[in-house]
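Worked example 3 (structure in, sequence out).
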């Protein structure tokens, strides 16, 4: 063998050794993934008065059947809610001056919060009756003190 062949073999062994070290023998380093912190959602801050009102709010309930409203007159405090429960087999509407009038399906509820004092008479009727007359025509009132 001549010197040239020995140098080529030595060079090939060095290259093979370097590649083997890099690919096979070098310890694997785990890369850590940086996960950004979750986005912070801001929650509106309530005033002391709003917290007080929210803690004192109560819900009254009015049950509506095909032939009566129970109770016919309900008394609640300012900022309280009244839950109107449709116990009929029809879609109805509870309507007063300035609130209601939305469809309430059979077994569904409607809530109304009263933010002013007074007496609020309402009418319960079948929602969207085609000929203007309704098989259901009931009345009641909410008294807010």
């Amino acid at each position: 063998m001549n010197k040239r062949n020995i140098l080529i073999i030595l060079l090939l062994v060095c290259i093979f050794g370097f590649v083997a070290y890099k690919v096979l023998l070098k310890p694997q380093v785990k890369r850590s993934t940086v996960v950004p912190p979750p986005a912070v959602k801001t929650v509106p801050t309530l005033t002391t008065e709003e917290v007080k009102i929210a803690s004192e709010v109560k819900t009254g309930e009015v049950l509506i059947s095909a032939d009566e409203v129970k109770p016919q007159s309900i008394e609640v405090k300012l900022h309280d809610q009244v839950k109107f429960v449709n116990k009929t087999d029809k879609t109805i509407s509870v309507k007063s001056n300035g609130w209601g009038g939305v469809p309430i399906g059979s077994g569904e509820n409607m809530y109304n919060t009263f933010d002013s004092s007074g007496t609020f008479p309402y009418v319960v009727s079948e929602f969207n009756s085609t000929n203007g007359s309704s098989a259901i025509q009931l009345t009641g009132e909410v008294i807010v003190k």
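Notes: The chain has a mean pLDDT of 81. The CA atoms of residues 56 and 80 lie 8 Å apart.
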